[in-house]
Amino acid sequence: MSKKAFERLGALSALLIIISYIWSCAARSGPLNVLLISADTLRADRLNSYGYNAHNVSPNIDGLARDGILFENHIAASPWTTPSHMSMLTSLSPSAHGVVQSFETLINGLNSGTFNRLGEDTVTLAESLQSGGYTTAAFTGGITLDRDIGFDQGFETYDTSMYKLNDQNMSTLFDWLGAHTTTPFFLFWHTFEVHAPYLHTTYLPEEHTEMKSKYDDLARSVSGEASLDGHSSNNAKLVSFLQASGAFEKDVCEALYLGGVKSMDEWLGRLIADLKKRDLYDRTLIVFTSDHGDEFGDHDPNSFYDKHGHSLYDEMIRVPLIIKLPNQQFAQTRVSAVTRAIDIMPTVLDILALEPERNQMQGESLRPLWLDPATAHERVALTEAAVFKHELKAVRTSQFKYIIQIPLKSVEEHGRSHIPGELPARLLFNLEEDPLEKQNLLGPAQHGPALERAAELDALLRGVVTAQLGKPEEVHLDDETVKRLKSLGYVQ
Question: Which of 199, 230, 385, 458 has a CB 3.0–4.6 Å from the CB of 219, allowing a cystine?
Answer without folding.
Answer: 199
